[in-house]
């Protein structure tokens, strides 16, 4: 059961501010009351309930990532989503092979949902992205390459950071990186 939910013994469902959650299915059975503004999956709680919060059950936002972005850049994010340049899925490998912390905000990008994860179109987490496949698969292959080449940590870090910049340029998201926003002159 998620925080703020009430359990209904008769229906065996959890009620969370305007919608019902079925623990056997592991998802909501009622659509998100804010529709697509909460994401493309109308029945999700949050993309990652460990990092994302949905205090009223109306929308999702990543308070931790947003705080890290603001602390690093010096201003709040503009778009709805913070994208990890280096995929969280491989955090242990990045740390072990290149001493890269994937949660360092200098590797973040502030993206619109359309640019980040659309299932149709060219979101970075789709196989039809400009890099030709899912962002995470690209980095899985790059980490395999680093291992096979037996790169030292400093060389691996330089190599992976350069590849991140190259991929961001190819995906046309470089201007949304935390460093680009941080260093952009104010108008």
Strand order of the largest sheet: 1-2-3-4
Structural class: alpha+beta
Distance between the termini: 47 Å
Please compute the radius of gyration using only Cα atoms. Answer: 19 Å
Q: Kindly state the mean pLDDT as a whole number?
A: 76
What fraction of residues sit in β-strands? 5-15%
The major beta sheet can be summarized as: 4 strands, antiparallel
Shape assignment:
globular
Write the H/E string, N to C.
Answer: EEEEHEHEHHHH
Helix content: 25-40%
Please give the domain count: 2
Spans of at least 5 consecutive residues whose pLDDT stays below 50 are: none
What is the β-strand count? Answer: 6
Total number of helical segments?
6
Protein name: Type IV secretion protein Rhs
Describe what is shown at a glance.
With 187 residues, the chain is of the alpha+beta class. It contains six helices and six strands; from the N terminus they run ββββαβαβαααα.
Written overview of the protein:
The radius of gyration is 19 Å and the shape is globular. The strands form 2 sheets. Strands 1-2-3-4 form a 4-stranded antiparallel β-sheet, with no helix packed on it. It is 34% helix and 11% strand. The chain has 6 helices and 6 strands.
Mind sketching the topology for me?
Layout: E1 6-8, E2 13-16, E3 19-22, E4 27-28, H1 63-73, E5 81-84, H2 91-98, E6 108-111, H3 113-117, H4 135-149, H5 153-171, H6 178-183
Protein name: Type IV secretion protein Rhs
Organism: Pelistega indica
Keywords:
alpha+beta, two-stranded antiparallel ribbon, T6SS_VgrG/RHS, Rhs_assc_core, His-Me_finger_sf, Type IV secretion protein Rhs
């Amino acid at each position: 059961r998620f925080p703020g939910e009430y359990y209904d013994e008769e229906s065996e469902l959890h009620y969370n501010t305007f919608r019902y959650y079925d623990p056997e299915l592991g998802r909501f059975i009622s659509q998100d009351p804010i529709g697509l503004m909460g994401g493309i999956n109308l029945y999700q709680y949050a993309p990652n309930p460990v990092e994302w919060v949905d205090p009223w059950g109306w929308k999702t936002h990543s308070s931790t990532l947003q705080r890290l972005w603001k602390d690093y850049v010096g201003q709040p994010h503009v778009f709805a989503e913070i994208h990890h340049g280096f995929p969280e899925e491989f955090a242990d490998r990045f740390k072990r092979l290149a001493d890269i912390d994937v949660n360092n905000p200098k590797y973040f990008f502030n993206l619109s949902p359309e640019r980040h994860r659309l299932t149709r179109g060219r979101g970075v987490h789709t196989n039809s992205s400009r890099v030709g496949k899912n962002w995470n698969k690209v980095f899985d292959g790059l980490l395999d390459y680093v291992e096979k080449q037996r790169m030292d940590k400093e060389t691996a870090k330089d190599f992976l950071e350069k590849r991140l910049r190259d991929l961001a340029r190819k995906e046309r998201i470089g201007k949304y990186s935390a460093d680009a926003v941080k260093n952009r002159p104010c108008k």
